[in-house]
Amino acid sequence: MNHLEKIVNNIRIKSPLVQNITNYVVMNSTANALLAIGASPVMAHAIEETEDIVTISSSLVINMGTLSEKWVDSMLFATKKAKETATPFVFDPVGVGASKYRTATALKIIAAAIPDVIRGNASEIMVLAQQASSSKGVDSTMLAADAVSGAIELSKKLNNTVVVSGQVDYIITGDRVNTISNGSTLMSKVTGMGCSATAIIGACIAIEPDVHLACTAAMAIMGIAGDMAAELSKGPGSFQVHFLDSLYLLTDDILKDKIKLNV
Ligand SMILES: Nc1ncnc2c1ncn2[C@@H]1O[C@H](COP(=O)(O)OP(=O)(O)OP(=O)(O)O)[C@@H](O)[C@H]1O
Ligand SMILES: Cc1ncsc1CCO
Ligand SMILES: [Mg+2]
């Protein structure tokens, strides 16, 4: 069995606990996505319990979608504890560039503890790579391909993995670039698909120490579940239901058959 397929199986076997400090919009949908793929989500943002939860978790997801100062304190404390306990963490800089507060907060989080993975859409990654100064909101106005050179620079500067999502997903670790071309346009018509991608990255880095490979598996899982769901859906409403079912029904064999990977 190929390594990517093993990651799918291992999530099901090990059911890693994935701690999320995430946004109000997607808390439910990303918890469901994690459960459907076989991981065990916990959404815990009170600073009083952060240390305990990080200590028992296999990975940490930090998503700044709906920010406020108390949550930022919890995020900074959680990433510090993650570093102390060698717990891998992924950061989703939702809407960075849309406001001065978002940009300052994203930079503060990255400066305090470098995330093992940063996953964003093209606009967000271009702001972090200083190739753009602002963005429209939480949706990208750019193509993922436009963000690749900046993402490579960012990944080299931080010595981590940067994932740019879009019609094509780019998984970038320095000069290593994998692409995944699965997925459907319907995914951009449902809120929180990017946040789900980040959460699934959390599940994959929880069980796979090769972060580049783990992120490739995560984006393949997202894209293939998106392909399967789109075939059954009439629009965004039914897509959400079919997407969860597809994550649940995804097997190592389906991944092997459907993956559109370029290395
Ligand atoms: N046009 C498309 N074709 C195929 N897949 C897509 C398309 N648009 C988005 N996706 C997929 O949807 C998921 C989310 O990516 P996207 O870039 O839209 O994230 P995002 O903008 O951060 O979303 P959100 O902030 O709403 O959570 C990824 O898995 C990506 O591959
Ligand atoms: C729509 C929206 N606004 C803040 S977070 C979020 C979820 C998608 O990123
Ligand atoms: Mg997003």
From TrEMBL:
It comes from the Bacteria. Its cofactor is Mg(2+). InterPro entries: Hyethyz_kinase, Ribokinase-like. ATP binds at R119, S165. Pathway: Cofactor biosynthesis; thiamine diphosphate biosynthesis; 4-methyl-5-(2-phosphoethyl)-thiazole from 5-(2-hydroxyethyl)-4-methylthiazole: step 1/1. It catalyses: 5-(2-hydroxyethyl)-4-methylthiazole + ATP = 4-methyl-5-(2-phosphooxyethyl)-thiazole + ADP + H(+). Keywords: ATP-binding, Kinase, Magnesium, Metal-binding, Nucleotide-binding, Thiamine biosynthesis, Transferase. Its EC number is 2.7.1.50. The keyword Kinase applies. The keyword Magnesium applies. One of its GO terms (biological process) is thiamine diphosphate biosynthetic process. It holds the Pfam family HK. Gene3D superfamilies: 3.40.1190.20. GO terms for molecular function: ATP binding; hydroxyethylthiazole kinase activity; magnesium ion binding. Substrate binds at M43, G192. It is an enzyme of class 2 (transferase). Coiled coil: none annotated. Belongs to the Thz kinase family. Catalyzes the phosphorylation of the hydroxyl group of 4-methyl-5-beta-hydroxyethylthiazole (THZ). This is Hydroxyethylthiazole kinase. The lineage of its organism: Bacteria, Pseudomonadati, Bacteroidota, Flavobacteriia, Flavobacteriales. The gene is thiM.
